[in-house]
Amino acid sequence: MRVDEKTLAEDIVRMSGTNVKKCMKCGKCSATCPSFEDMDVHPHSFVTMAEEGDVAGLLKSKSLWKCLSCFACVERCPRGVEPAHLIEAVRFFALSPQGLNKMKPDVVPIFLQNLEEKGAEVPQQLLTSAFRKYSK
Amino acid sequence: MQRIGVFVCWCGSNIAATVDVDAVAQAVKTEPGVAFSTNYQYMCSEGGQAIIRNAIAEHKLTGIVVCACSPRMHEATFRKTAATAGLNPYMVEIANIREQCSWIHKDREKATVKAIILSRAAVAKLNLDSPLTAGETPVTKRALVIGGGIAGIQTALDIADAGYEVDIVEKTPTIGGKMAMLDKTFPTLDCSACILTPKMVDAAAHEKITLYTYSEVEKVSGFVGNFTVDIRKRARSVDADRCTGCGDCMEKCPSKKSKSEFNQGLSNRSAIYIPFAQAIPNVPVIDREACIKFQTGKCGVCQKICSAKAVDYEQQDEIMTRRYGAIVAATGFKTINLGRFEEFQYAQSPDVITSLEFERLCNAAGPTKGKVMRLSNHETPKTVVFVQCVGSRSTVECGKTYCSKICCMYTAKHAMLLKEKYPETEVYVFYIDVRTPGKGFDEFYRRAAEEYGVRYVKGMVGKVAEENGRLRVQASDLIADKQLVIEADMVVLAAAIEPDPSARNLATLLTASMDTNDFFTEAHPKLRPVESPTAGVYLSGVCQGPKDIPDTVSQAGAAAAKVIGLLAKDKLVGNPCVAGCNEPLCNGCSACELVCPYGAITYEEKTVMDHGVREQRRVASVNEALCQGCGACTVTCPSGAMDLKGFTNLQIMAEVDAICR
Amino acid sequence: MEFSYFPGCTLKTKARDLDETARLAAEALGVTLRELPEWQCCGAVYPMSREEIAVRLSSVRALMAARDEGRPLLTLCSACHHVMKRVNHDMQTDEGLRTKANNYLQPDKPYAGETRVVHYLEMLRDEVGFGEVARKVTSPFKGVKIAAYYGCMLLRPSAVMRFDNPENPSVMEDFISAIGAAPVRFPYRNECCGGYVALDDRGAARKASRRVTRAAAQHGAEALITACPLCLYNLKENGGGEVPVHYFTEFLAAALGLKTLEGGLARAS
After folding, report:
1. What's the whole-number mean pLDDT along residues B107-117?
2. Three-class SS state of C96
């Protein structure tokens, strides 16, 4: 593990406000996660990887974009570890460097056109929250 | 002038690592009255005590200060040491430089300064000490056991077998407790009722044991050896002396819709009921909330048909006052409320049950006669999922931080019993850790996995959902890094256990301390595990911490041994540190009498000499046998007349002065 | 009963129904809603990283404005409520965040989370009372089986939201009973609809939403109600159309005889 990677891991944990040491490896976060099947790295592994400082694996994980922020893992964790907060912090670091935004505004018109042609009313809330999650 | 010896203990590195013990010993040398000082690795060891004894003789010491751990730990030890060397045992002061100094500080220099100050205060106090002699009080040779489960029954039997009278007070209508509800017991799979009911009968038949069921402790006063207890015998509405236990009343009772407490609400009972067939006493009780006669005045069927004329609607609660030498708390446990664990759908699906409910379903004498069935459709489940640690080991607000200890083993038992009855059943156990420290325990668990094919999965269940009449269980398999979805017919939750709620009130009555989880605390977690810090109060069973039946029975016996040790004494040496009244100063205001928690203070008319004038006055008088030396009167007294021997106002001020110097 | 009211972006555009019916019903129930002047976005999602200050500021502004008006702050959209409530909690409990936010905003009087944030449903339950709601109902939805969809934002994390039992809530079911209908409890009422992922991965949103609508249908629901425009969107557009989805306020306004339920329910009387 490189030194800067270790610092980054510490930054991520600090920023998330979680205490990864409280995890007792029960797996309830992964048991309750509605996006488990779409994830490559699962919520409980996020906690272990953060604890071990393995941030390279976290930063490139597609799980970052699959977390629904539904807080089921946060609510049901018996130790108050808050894996979703950890995922959010990693996402923050993944998006922060210039040009790494996951979502760009030009997708919006296409998206809206596709849906609204079929009569769907796309709420502003969907766009604002998606952009808050997928870009900085 | 005193000749004081100061003995500074290292407590290995417990004190010496943070406090410069030699500096402390040197610093106190110049204190007034100090004739000798030294330090040693373990003052409480035989070597340390020899140093103290020799110094007392050699330096003609009149008192000693030991700078060591908390007086709760070793004050008694050093008093004995002083006494063997010919000193009055109350010429001993302890400076607590461990719990109140080395353990809580990191900075060695500052900790040393604080240790010196604490030692100086102890020396200042000792300078004003005077020899005290303890009085003696007789011991009431009768014990009270509160709780009639296996813990209470075993404690009572052991005390009674030693020849002492024991009363058992049980709040429900029968003794037997939780063990009576169980089917089989681990790790031997012998039938719970078969080993418990003979003990219940023994307790009831024992000439030295008196049972008070459907009764509660209402008031406790007195102290070790001499407790006075008020017991409320709740009205059963049935005369126990007349009742023959025929059961006709229960059969004819028209109110049959109450949930059976004994069957965990899985069956109904009548308003007049005996909790289960082997209940002791075999006398029904009327649940007045459910009884039509009590609610509407119309009915009276049970009274009409009772050929023994035992039913008595007029019966009242009865308060009995009894005296005891010792009290044993054996109040047991209950499973936690699962209202905040509804991700498992306990309240929302009849097929999600607790382990204790499963126990009743398995039991041949249970509501389904031992047939394990889904409560939704009465079919035998084909797939059953057991979930461990529901609410245990949880730091969130609705959970319990501790391990409930019994769940791993009873779940292995349930899984095996299920496979034994229905070999085709698919059985899953979701666990975080399987904890099996006990004789034959791990072998038992492995038997479930290896011989019975129970599927143990490391991981937790995250969500249970009712879908198409079955239960969709979504869970983790951490070793395979998979999310499993199991279509189950029944989910059994190993709910955390917690102390019975009645324990909290009892602790207040007994002035016995509890931990943050409402388990009673021991006098010492390792060395005095069955004694409460309150003298004369003992602990038996789960009220002290989670434990299984073998541990409970062992501990029940240990508590009984302690009680027997106490009751075997004819007299107890009291505490000489009691309050006294300086009569010329007393203004007769009664403030001390009102504040005394032990009723030890009374007022009497006395002739008092005040500045040479003889006067008739109303003054406070302390009953030294009742006084526990709490000091409440001394701080309440507006005129400074009340003083506590061994902790006089002058001594306390001398300590404060020494600290502030 | 007066509240400062924070509608949020969607209630002024795509979720006008939610806003309008809520206002109508509030008036009929004797509750005055005073829309905050010049309110801004709530922040859309709660910033879970503790060090993000700027994205919390717009919420703090609204909370502070309500404090200055001397009224509790009423929210309606689940996401707005979630963000407001949690940012308010941060301002109460996280000294570092509080200092930084106040340093940015430089208000006359520093803000420390004094405002009480109340969701419309909490207002119905705790201030008006469902008994009172039931008394004012003129067109009850007798016999209609309605399933409440809570989603995530109102309930979790319960330690902060303090909205209801997070795993077995009852406020919306009590609401359904109050308007004369029959509540249908189903296990996925507090599981995610897919949320914002709908924009990036519609498949994921479909999976999540269908699980919800299918379970509701299976338990016999004739309609689903929600408080959240995004939930409504997902359940409608990605939920497979098995069960009609409405804002709970639409039912409320209809039951109070203020506005007929759009799209209607065959059995609504």
Report:
1. 97
2. helix
For residues A13 and A67, membership in a common domain is answered with yes
Please name each of the domains of chain C with its CATH number. 2-120 (1.20.1050.140), 130-255 (3.40.50.1860)
For B380, half-sphere exposure in the C-beta direction (CA atoms, 13 angstrom radius) is 13
CA angle B270, B243, B218 (to 5 degrees): 75
Verify that A92 and A117 share a domain, yes or no. no
Residue labelled with tokens 């600090």:
A14
ipTM topping 0.85: yes
pLDDT digits (tens, 9 = 90+) for A57-104: 899 999 999 999 999 999 999 999 999 999 999 998 898 887 788 888
Domains of chain B: 4-126 (3.40.50), 142-234+317-332+500-567 (3.50.50.60), 248-305 (no CATH), 335-498 (3.50.50.60), 579-645 (3.30.70.3270)
Residues B3-43 have pLDDT tens digits of 999 999 999 999 999 999 999 999 999 999 999 999 999 99
What is the tens place of the pLDDT at every residue in B518-537?
999 999 899 999 999 888 99
User: Is A118 found in the same domain as A53?
Assistant: no
Ramachandran assignment for B610, one of left (phi > 0), alpha (psi -120 to 50 degrees), beta (any other): beta
Helix (H) or strand (E) holding B426: strand B426-431
Q: Does residue A40 sit in the same domain as residue A79?
A: yes
Domain count, chain A: 2
What was the pLDDT predicted at A110?
Answer: 84
3-class state of residue C255 by DSSP = helix
B339, B345, B396 member nearest C187 (Cβ): B345
**Residue B598 in this model has a pLDDT that exceeds 80:** no
- Domain hosting residue A118, numbered range: 102-136
Contact at 8 Å (CB) between B600 and B580? no
Give C-chain residues touching B396 at CB under 8 angstroms.
Answer: 159
Q: Helix (H, G, I), strand (E, B), or coil: what is residue B542? A: helix
Whole-angstrom CA distances from B581 to B129, B599, B642, B651, C192 are 18, 15, 5, 16, 73
Q: Does B395 touch chain C (CB under 8 A)?
A: no
pLDDT band of C219, cuts 50, 70, 90? very high
Same domain, A12 and A75: yes
Residue A26 shares a structural domain with residue A39: yes
In this complex, is the C-beta atom of B468 within 8 Å of any C-beta atom belonging to chain C? yes
Alpha carbon dihedral A107, A108, A114, A118, in 10-degree steps, equals 160
- How far apart are alpha carbons B420 and B37 in whole angstroms? 72
Strand partners, B326: B143
- CA–CA distance, B276 with B467 (Å, rounded to integer): 36
Residues A94 and A111 placed together within one structural domain of the fold: no
Contact C50 A127 (CB under 8 A): no
B339/C187 Cβ within 8 A: no
Are B114 and B503 within 8 A, CB to CB?
no
Is the CB of residue C127 less than 8 Å from the CB of residue C93? no
Strand order in the sheet with B215-223: B215-223, B226-233, B318-324
Name the DSSP class of B11. Answer: T
Same domain? For A20 and A63 the reply is yes
CB contacts of C199 in chain A (<8 Å) are: 103, 107, 111, 126-127, 130
| Closest C-alpha to B100, from B123, B73, B70 | B70
Query: Which residue in A68, A121, A129 is closest to C79 by CB distance?
Result: A129
Helix (H, G, I), strand (E, B), or coil: what is residue B226?
strand
Strands B190-191 and B184-185: antiparallel
3-state SS assignment for residue C67: helix
- Give the C window 152-171 contacts with B, CB below 8 Å: 159, 165-168
Q: What is the CATH number of the domain that holds A45?
A: 1.10.1060.10
Around Cβ C136, how many Cβ atoms within 10 Å? 17
